[in-house]
Amino acid sequence: MSNDAAGRSGLSFAKFLSEMSPELRARINERRRQVAAEEHKRFREAFKTGQCCFCGDALTSFDQAKPCRHWLLNPAGFGKDHLELLAKQHSWKVLENYLRWVANEDAFAKNINDLADEGTGKLVELTIRYKNIEWSFSCSATDLSGHEGGGEHSRRPHYHFLMYVDGKPFIRYNDFHLPLSAPDIGFLEYTRANPGKVQVRSAPIQLDTIVMAPPGKAIAGEDIYNLIQAAKAEGVTIASKMRNLQGASVQTFVSPGPGVVRQATRSGRKKRRGDRKVRAQDRAWREQQKRER
Ligand SMILES: [Zn+2]
Ligand SMILES: [Zn+2]
User: Fold this and answer.
1) Cα(first)–Cα(last) distance of the chain, in Å?
2) Contact 207, 9 (CB under 8 A)
């Protein structure tokens, strides 16, 4: 799916989310919860024995021809440029959910911190730790709409990713503008248009989406780009422009991920060295973004 098509489907998805009745949501959640619980069980059983449930290989193995979520565990051979191969196959929410599962194998809920909680104003700002590795995701409204300053990739809906190994930067936020999938765009748009309604931080939500073009039609890509530009020019959310869209229908299942992670309490929490480091990196990052605008 092209990025334009992803954006288009994402908007349809956001519209679908905003119109879904609580009853339907509850029914779908229950159905999805069972499937997700089974997948998590397979993950755990394999992980405990050092195997990856997704590719079937060892967690320490690396095969450039088989991009897999377990690459984020930094197997020998994995280099930062391989991240783009992985990000082409799996968008933010899939990778985040995987890393939440990983972190919870070490210490439930302890290794996940939400920096957006400190009022950075980002849609996504999350740090997850496991042993000697630290991953952070960042997506601002500007990233969601696309911005100048990073070539073609930065003008599409995207997020940024940071990875520390042994306390040293391995991948930096400004190394990549990683593409967001249709469901991720939709989910983030929905979050932006409905502040307070989506507890993405305290309740990881799993999304499975089937996107369908109308019978006999391809999903037109131009519309979404124009729509994003129009929304930016008018300073309104993309979701508010969605009534102008017609076309693709989106069928979506939304459910809380298994092993829901409680948001870490910020007050009185002891600041660890890792936190300070990530916050410093984040401040530098925000300063840089201001300059790019
Ligand atoms: Zn794997
Ligand atoms: Zn960006």
Assistant:
1) 29
2) no
Chain centre to alpha carbon of residue 228: 19
Whole-number Å distance between alpha carbons of 3 and 79: 25
Ligand 2 centroid – CA 106 distance (Å): 31
Q: Which residues are registered as beta bridge partners of 147?
A: none
> How many angstroms separate the CA atoms of 163 and 208, rounded?
26
pTM of the predicted structure, to 2 decimals: 0.65
Cα 76 to ligand 1 centre (Å): 13
E strand or H helix at 25, and its extent?
helix 22-48
| In the predicted structure, residue 1 carries a pLDDT above the cut 50 | no
Q: Find the ligand nearest to 90 CA.
A: 1
Ligand nearest to the CA of 69: 1
- Cα-to-centroid distance, 276 and ligand 1 (Å): 31
117 close to 267: Cβ distance less than 8 angstroms: no
158 or 27, which is more confident: 158
Instruction: Please give the residue that has the higher pLDDT: either 98 or 268.
Output: 98
pLDDT greater than 50 at residue 80: yes
Angle at 21 between CA 10 and CA 140, to 5 degrees: 35
